[in-house]
Amino acid sequence: RTLRAAISWSVARLSAQAREQLLRLCVFMGGFTEADARAITGLERSTLEALARASLLQPAALGRHHMLEPIREFALEQLSVAGWAPDAHARHARHFAMECHGAFDALIGREQSVWYARIDAEQPNIQAAMRWSIHDAGDRAAQALRVGYGIWRYWWQRGYWRDNLAAMRQALDVNGPDAAAIVRREGDESAANAALLLHAGA
């Protein structure tokens, strides 16, 4: 109770903008880079520095930042109270789905080692993006499949294929046997390819 009071006091001292940014940052899992935070929440460096000075964010390796779990739990609660949770989670999932989509060719390119390291660091965020995409609504099936298809080489090389294949199948089940046709109509070729591959291996 004392810790919660201390967190509440620190958050209350923030400006309205910094407070909203803090709450939106709590959707990250396993930390985040400044670039990802800016892309998803519009976070400015001055706000990042203010949150760090208030000990609401902690520096981590490789230029990353993370939120201690008691602070994150408080922020998640307040994010829901403010009514921002659906939008914050959707932005997070959409961003990492796009990142995975962009990784498809990069994982066999000249900078593949950089991409493997990036995906290693972002595994908690990628898994969270897939879970949100699967469970939020049926029309997110394409987004979840885009994540899976975009980084299937990474999963194979790291030995994660079986676990993540199950998640992709779950995404496919959201829209049933017509999922491949649905995502192809949406113009999402990578998601359609993932759906077809899963059906072929069923």
Task: Describe the protein.
With 202 residues, the chain is mostly helical. The protein has 12 helices and 3 strands. It has helices at residues 2-12, 16-25, 34-41, 45-53, 69-82, 85-106, 112-136, 141-150, 152-158, 161-175, 179-185, 189-200, and strands at 32-33, 58-59, 64-66. The chain has a 3-stranded antiparallel beta sheet with strand order 1-3-2. Helix 6 (85-106) packs parallel to helix 8 (141-150), helix 7 (112-136) runs parallel beside helix 10 (161-175) and helix 11 packs antiparallel against helix 12 (189-200). The longest helix has 25 residues, at 112-136. It is globular. The protein starts with a helix and ends with a helix.
Largest sheet: 3 strands, antiparallel
In angstroms, what is the radius of gyration?
Answer: 18 Å
Number of helices: 12
**Measured distance between first and last alpha carbons:** 50 Å
List the helices and strands and how they pair.
Elements: H1 2-12, H2 16-25, E1 32-33, H3 34-41, H4 45-53, E2 58-59, E3 64-66, H5 69-82, H6 85-106, H7 112-136, H8 141-150, H9 152-158, H10 161-175, H11 179-185, H12 189-200
Helix pairs in contact: 2-4, 2-5, 3-6, 6-7, 6-8, 7-8, 7-10, 8-10, 8-12, 11-12
Would you summarize the structure shown here?
This protein has helices spanning 2-12, 16-25, 34-41, 45-53, 69-82, 85-106, 112-136, 141-150, 152-158, 161-175, 179-185, 189-200; strands at 32-33, 58-59, 64-66. By secondary structure, the chain is mostly helical. The protein starts with a helix and ends with a helix.
Which terms would index this structure?
single chain, 202 residues, mainly alpha, 3% strand, globular
